[in-house]
Amino acid sequence: MDDKQLVHWPTNVLKFHVTELYLGSNLLRSIPDEICQIPFLRQLDVSNNQIEKISEKFSSLELLQVFTAKNNKIVDLPENLPQLKNLRILNLAGNQLQKIPIQVCDLNNLKTLHFGGNLIQEIPQEIKHI
Questions:
Q1: Which among 127, 120, 89 has a CA at the least distance from the CA of 105?
Q2: Interval 43-58: pLDDT, tens
Q3: Which pTM value belongs to this model?
């Protein structure tokens, strides 16, 4: 569903056994709560939208392994991000983040982390232990 100029989420997608979802290059301002109800979702790409905030409900995607949200307007991440225990790749390049959230250090399976093109001026000491 890339580049479809989506503003709202089509709820009938929940009927399918979706494991990968690509919603890049649309007009989404947030990640719809309905996406957080897709039980088998392993990969989510919402790059090139207008997303400013990620809901706390996002952490209910327990099987999520890859999250890509490049080139949005994200300024912060939810506190409960470490509940995404299976997350291996987190790509938040090209957003409005001013710091790397410390909760990223609690993502035990994280292998790849992209924060380039943000407003980050220093890297926390704790990030060295990832």
A1: 127
A2: 999 999 999 999 999 9
A3: 0.88
